[in-house]
Amino acid sequence: MTALEAVAVHLPDLAVPIEAVGERIGLTPRQISLFRRFHGLDQVRLDPDGTLHDLLAGAIGALTELRGREHLVRHVLYARSMPVALPYPLDPLPDLLDRFGLGHAEHFSLSHHACAGSLLAIDLAGRLLTADPDPEALALVLTGEKTFTRDAQLVPETALFAEGAAACLVRAGGGPGEVLSYAVRQLGEFDGRFAEDPELLTRYQRAYPETMAEVIRTAAERAGTGLDELALILPHNVNQVSWRRLARELDLPIERVLLDNVPAVGHSFAADGFINLHTAVTRGLLRPGDRYLIAASGLGATFSAMTVRH
C-alpha cells in the first residue's frame, strides 16, 4: 500500500494576465478571447527572474513535515511534463537535494506520462518503498517546471502553462492518505505536435472527454467507490469548459470538481493535482475518511486517475 503523507506548494507571487502572456507568445486577439471567455482562464503564475532550482526549492522548503525526517527519504522522483528541462548536462537535483539534506537519496526524473507524471511518480514511489525493509522509509515526489519556450507555455486551443511547483511526501502503508486505486490509459496515436497538426488536435479533442471519463470511472470502481461517494475530484488545471463537460458526462455536480485554481493559477504541468490537494486541505474541504480522486491527462497521450482516502 502507498499513502500521501503531506503535500506543499510554491506559487510565484507574480500573476500575469493571459492577455500579456498571449501577446508575448504571438496569439491573436481571437485566440486570447477564446481562452478567457470560453475556457475560463484569467491569469497564470510566473517567475520570470527565477530559475528551476528556485521553483523546486520553494516547494521543498514549504514541506514542513519533511524537517527532521530527511534521513528517512530513500528516493526523490522529479515528475515533469517536458522531456528536457535544462540544457545538457545541467541538472538541478543534486545541488537542490544537498541544500535540503537529501543528498543521500536515490534521485531520478521521469517524463513518460507528461502532465499525468505526478500520479505515475506516486505509484512508482510506493513500489520502491514496498521493497524497503525500513517501515519508516519515505519518498519525495517533486513537480514544477519553467515555461522556457513557446511550446512550454501553450497547448493550442486548450491551456496556458504556469510555473507552480509542489512537493509530496510518500510513505508505504495504509491509514490517512492511503492510495486506493490507480488507473491509466495511453493512446499513442495522439503523439505529435498539435501546433503543427490541426487534424491531430481535433481528433484528440474528440477522444478526450470519453477517455478521461472512462479512466475516472475505472479508478473509482477499483477503489470500490461510487462516483457519488467522492468528496472531490481534483483536476488538472487545463480549463473550465472541459471539466464542465466531463462533470455532465459523469453525472456529477460541477461543485464536486475543484476548479478554483484554473483561472487563478493556470496549468502547472504535473503539479496541478498536488496544488489542488493543497487547496482542498487548507480550505477544509476534505474530512478524515473522505475519498477523493486526482485526475490528469498528459499529451502523448496519457489519461490517469488515482483514488485516495483522506
Q: Overview of this structure, please?
A:
- The protein is of the alpha/beta class.
- The chain folds into 2 domains: 2-172, Thiolase/Chalcone synthase (Peroxisomal Thiolase, Chain A, domain 1, 3-Layer(aba) Sandwich); 178-309, Thiolase/Chalcone synthase (Peroxisomal Thiolase, Chain A, domain 1, 3-Layer(aba) Sandwich), CATH 3.40.47.
- Helices cover 32% and strands 25% of the residues.
- The protein has 9 helices and 13 strands.
- The protein has helices at residues 18-24, 29-38, 52-62, 93-99, 117-130, 198-222, 240-250, 261-264, 272-282; strands at 2-10, 14-17, 43-46, 73-79, 106-110, 138-143, 154-155, 159-160, 165-172, 178-186, 230-234, 291-298, 302-309.
- The chain has a 5-stranded mixed beta sheet with strand order 1-9-6-4-5. The chain has a 4-stranded mixed beta sheet with strand order 10-13-12-11.
- A hairpin with a 3-residue loop joins β12 and β13 (302-309).
- α1 runs antiparallel to α2.
- The radius of gyration is 18 Å and the shape is globular.
- It starts with a strand and ends with a strand.
- The mean pLDDT is 95.
